[in-house]
From TrEMBL:
Lineage: Bacteria, Pseudomonadati, Pseudomonadota, Alphaproteobacteria, Sphingomonadales
PROSITE patterns in alphabetical order: DNAA (PS01008)
GO cellular component: cytoplasm; plasma membrane
Role of this protein: Plays an essential role in the initiation and regulation of chromosomal replication. ATP-DnaA binds to the origin of replication (oriC) to initiate formation of the DNA replication initiation complex once per cell cycle. Binds the DnaA box (a 9 base pair repeat at the origin) and separates the double-stranded (ds)DNA. Forms a right-handed helical filament on oriC DNA; dsDNA binds to the exterior of the filament while single-stranded (ss)DNA is stabiized in the filament's interior.
Record protein name field: Chromosomal replication initiator protein DnaA
Amino acid sequence: MARNAHLNRVGKSVRDTDALSKEEQEALDLAADWSDISVGLRKDLGQQLHSQWIKPIQVGNFCKETGTLDLFLPTEFSANWVNDRFQDRLSLAWKIARSEVRHVRISVHPGRRKLGDLNLRPDGGKRAANDAAYATLSMGAMGEDSLSSSVGLDPSQTFGAFVTGTTNVLACNAAERMAKVEQPQFSPLYLKAATGQGKTHLLHAIGHSYMQAFPRARIFYCSAERFMIDFVQALRQNEMMEFKARLRGFDLLLVDDLQFIIGKASAQEELLYTIDALLTEGKRLVFAADRAPQALDGVEPRLLSRLSMGLVADIQPADIELRRAILESKLTKFAPLDVPADVIEFLARTVSRNVRELVGGLNKLIAYAQLTGQEISLQLAEEQLTDILSANRKRITIDEIQRTVCQFYRVDRSEMSSKRRARAVVRPRQVAMYLSKVLTPRSYPEIGRKFGGRDHSTVIHAVRLIEDLRKRDADMDGDVRSLLRQLES
């Protein structure tokens, strides 16, 4: 019902302003349906499978004549995998959501370049095929036939666009060092980070920066998944000698999502030999994965040893200061669009799982506002980002807040409900009320009842007072920030 009410509001806005075409309205309706379907699939499949295979799906066009809906994925491998395992489930879900959908077609997004055969013959011939997850960049050796770095490396993912903070500064500095003219003190560099924390961005940034430092360099960038596909293809076509020769001729090797090479013994052995060959010649290697080398199950000890011998740089989840800085940085692209400060603060505080979701939430909010002509507000953010917000929200209780505040200010827990008016207990009590309103969905009367049956007006006064003190008193603002970090960690 909530979704229908929302669509009715959108429809009214469109009729009043004539802001949307029929195609745009259809796209919004499909997106809303997919949002509901995706939530259901996440519950059925679990967070890990959903994030890896379902979440990347993009909804394409719907042909009313044939009843065919297009669903797109970024690579052939992922499209085939989802088609083999989830075709029936996706078709059924869409038929339930929309009776006119009779067929669901899963394929590679038409904006992606499909992967052709990788020609590894020494005499040249075809260039390596490329998509966003696979690139062979070679300058000088291939002359005019060289590939532009914009083909395989995202031009937006540079060091200049990477926002640093305390949680990622080590990895960023190590990545910058890897791309400098001077030989790095460590190789390989291993970037370890959970999904959406910036490790792929750093891989692309290393590639761009290295090309600037060494214009005639030969760079190989791929995912471990792509490495596996090309390895098997070369094996089947009896082209292993060419595969090895080509692979070991690069100056910089960048391999992403290394966790997907787990359990492939022959490919692991080839990667091991490649690492040894490149290190012996002083070449540079960078790997990225969602776990530390020692946590890669099914990887033989010799390969683990090579992956660990350089520097393992950990990227921790972005803290709230870094999340704010990232949002402010992204907003410069949309200037002079006005996004209120309270919306930025709300997103930074609420979307804490990974940076990709954070930026995606901001982009979705801005796109919706532009398509519908609505002003961006806190209410609009809460309405349009329900899936992202619910997935990120940690359930913090008022009891937990009271306990943490009492420990921080060294007051007895009973003071949260007492009638004492001494400043030493009143201020911590007010801070706890403020945090209860910020971090929980509880109403003012509900919060008042948890603080000794106080009236809702008392809670409102406490919230406004602490908000004002945070603006004027650096010590108070520091206390609240410290408490927020404790409660949200």
